[in-house]
Write a structure and sequence with these properties.
This protein is mainly alpha-helical. It is 70% helix and 8% strand. It has helices at 4-26, 35-53, 55-62, 66-86, 112-137; strands spanning 96-101, 107-111. A two-stranded antiparallel sheet has the order 1-2. Helix 2 (35-53) runs parallel beside helix 5. The protein starts with a helix and ends with a helix.
Length: 139
């Protein structure tokens, strides 16, 4: 699609979507949000860029293949589960470290649930972007 209005709007909306997806990720285990919806919002931002500027431009923006996001996300989610095992606790036991106050996401607590949510975020974003790229490039 070749629309000046869409390209201009996408230039403003896409970074806001990506920033909002991070906010959703970070506040997910305390309030509504989390890795799943954050990943979907991020994928929508990449898809918007792809519609406005073309799929090759969206691939360049992403900088890594979507399959790499999926693999990294699965690794992070699994690693968060094994952290409890290495501490002598059951699989997927939440381990907590420190916390940092933030302006938009309340108090950010570091721990394995955040690591798991980050893995889910990457998997969902990778799968959704891969589906969008596949459908857009289908001949």
């Amino acid at each position: 699609m070749d629309s000046l209005i869409l390209r201009t709007a996408a230039r403003v909306i896409m970074p806001l979507q990506l920033a909002f997806s991070i906010v959703l990720l970070l506040r997910g285990h305390n309030e509504p949000g989390g890795g799943f919806i954050g990943g979907l919002v991020a994928a929508c931002g990449i898809a918007l860029h792809g519609v406005a500027h073309g799929i090759p431009a969206a691939r360049r923006l992403l900088r890594v293949p979507p399959q790499m996001l999926i693999g990294l996300g699965l690794f992070l989610a699994a690693a968060s589960g094994f952290a409890g095992v290495f501490a002598g606790l059951p699989f997927m036991t939440g381990l907590w470290g420190g916390s940092v106050p933030t302006l938009v996401a309340g108090e950010l607590k570091f721990g394995t649930p955040l690591l798991f949510d980050t893995g889910v975020y990457l998997v969902v974003a990778g799968v959704a972007v891969l589906m969008v790229f596949s459908m857009a490039e289908d001949d």
